[in-house]
Here is the input.
Amino acid sequence: MKPLTIFPNSRRPSHPPAEPGTFEVGVLFESSEDGWLLGVRLYRGATENTGPRYGRLWTADGVDIAGATAQFDDGERLGWTAAYFAVPPRIIGGERYVAGANIPQGYLSYVAKGLAKPVTCECLTAIEGRFTRQHAAFPDETHLEGNDYMVDVLFTTEPRLARAPFYFTGGVYPPADDGMTNNHYQLADAKYTVPSGWELAITSATFASKRPGGGERSSYMYVSFGLITVPDHVGHVPLPSPIVFPAGHDLTLGFHNNSPSPQNMNGWVVGYLCPTGTALW
Here is the structure.
């Protein structure tokens, strides 16, 4: 199942790019169904449009939805470009949102009167085009004739499409004379809290240890779900089935040096974030 968009890929500006400057452009939209916003699309109509471009999401009255920022990585390609959120924000059916994108320096592309009336495609409806001449600001202005500023959304109602890859790492590198042998290191700064509305599935872990100056000794990595032992000190441990943590859980890493010499120890876990209740689908 592909993400849903409001406008087809064939949609093009009705006029040559005009009005050079700095803009944040957007579209006020709503969905008739609950789902997730995977990303934002922006039509790049001129090679003069340069600088980093970001997609954003706000509520209809301009509240920035926390964490909903995605960078366009399409280089200098013209036409429809896309930015994907690391963690797709939840969209509530019947509520209105503004999806936006910035043009740090360049020309504004638009379809004259393209949103003089709402445009609907399946469960999505674009209500009006928005813009502002302030960089990275909420686009709260509209054109009298209902111009469309070529911003679209990538939306899904399918939880599998809303999954986000997860990677979490940490390590300890004690000096050779720190005396911390046969000791447990709990990393205070190596903690990740599963966000509300999501659950975290860990699928594998990797751990490595080495004594400063050379040589390997016995040591272990602790994750918040238990002990992982890698006998050869450098290894990858696929888990037989995902270990799932609910929203609010603090995932932590720690290491235990079981040798008479200090150890450099590091490790990481990988998996995916997914909407609550869907980790094992």
